[in-house]
Amino acid sequence: MTTSRTLSILSIAYPFAPVRSDTVGGAEQILARLDRALVDAGHHSIVIAVEGSSVQGHLVASPAVDGIIDAATRARACSNIKAAMGEVLARDRVDLVHLHGLDFFEYLPPPGLPVLVTLHLPLQLYPAAALRPARAGTWLVPVSASQARARAELPLLPPIENGVDLPSAAPHARRGYALALGRICPEKNFAAALDACRLANCPLLLAGQAYGYPEHLSYFNREIMPRLDGSRRWIGRIAGPRKRRLLAGARCVLIPSRIAETSSLVAMEALASGVPVIAYPAGALPDIVEHGRTGFLAEDVPSMARAIGAADQLDPEDCRRAARERFSADRMAGQYLALYERLATSGVGQSPYP
């Protein structure tokens, strides 16, 4: 998509996760895809993100904050973001600031510029005041209809559904393993995926990373490590060709999330590869997984185990078709670029929609 004038967009990532196209975090993947879309469309993309990030536009690297992510490290990270943003706004013309982090309210820019915030996470994780910003010209956009329905009273823009890049080639033949991937943390509940695969006598590859939050590391050591064996393995973070290869070869992808997922790039990527998704009906997942056609919705470990046994009955082409029709990254990027132009030209405080 092209717009009527060249835009300069400043995107600000969550300060603890690098932005790369092959990163684990969904918010970082979306930011990377939008950065690429801006550059491809001839716009100016500036990204403030932690050291180790890689973008198509201009990267302003924020110093990494090492160690356990506690209140002190959060404060240092937010201070780094504020300093970097101040330098960019003093030096460059910026038409709009796009914030992606859970802690966006800690580093809102000074008044005068339109600000767009994508709410990547469940709304209950944000402070109540952050969802009703007092700063004029600050707009919040959800990433799914399910997320918007959860708090219909909030002043949110219409949702822009997430999207993924679609494989250009047909996937490889399925092999016998199930795959689960994402952040290793209590709310993702990967212990249930391990239990379901043991009950179904199915191998499992668990791919993901435990970040430096004490509760995440404790969950990994307490709930994941004791469940691993020769057939159910943790393989760490995967990305790029290896991720695509393992996705394409999986019998199914398991998402036993306990939290109301706002979206699921993992589910969309699986379907794009022709792989059915077996998920708990949390948040947006019932809107993504068509029960009995592109996957199954399970209520507990035994029903997930039964669904693993039935995954081979589903047609991979139905999964790929659903991804093409509903979950294209090009569709998502086009909607964001159109919103950028509306916000940049409508004036601070004025709605971008009639």
Structural class comes to alpha/beta
pLDDT under 50 segments (min length 5)? none
CATH class of the largest domain: Alpha Beta
Number of domains in the coordinates?
2
Mean pLDDT: 92
Radius of gyration: 20 Å
CATH architect. name of the largest domain = 3-Layer(aba) Sandwich
Give the helix level as a range of percent. 25-40%
Strand order of the largest sheet: 3-2-1-4-5-6
Largest sheet: 6 strands, parallel
Taken as a percent bin, the fraction of beta residues is 15-25%
Shape, per Cα inertia axes: globular
| Count of discrete alpha- or pi-helical segments spanning 4 or more residues | 11
Summarize the structure.
This protein is of the alpha/beta class and 354 residues long. It contains 11 helices and 12 strands. The chain folds into 2 domains: 175 residues, Rossmann fold (3-Layer(aba) Sandwich), CATH 3.40.50; 149 residues, 3-Layer(aba) Sandwich (Rossmann fold).
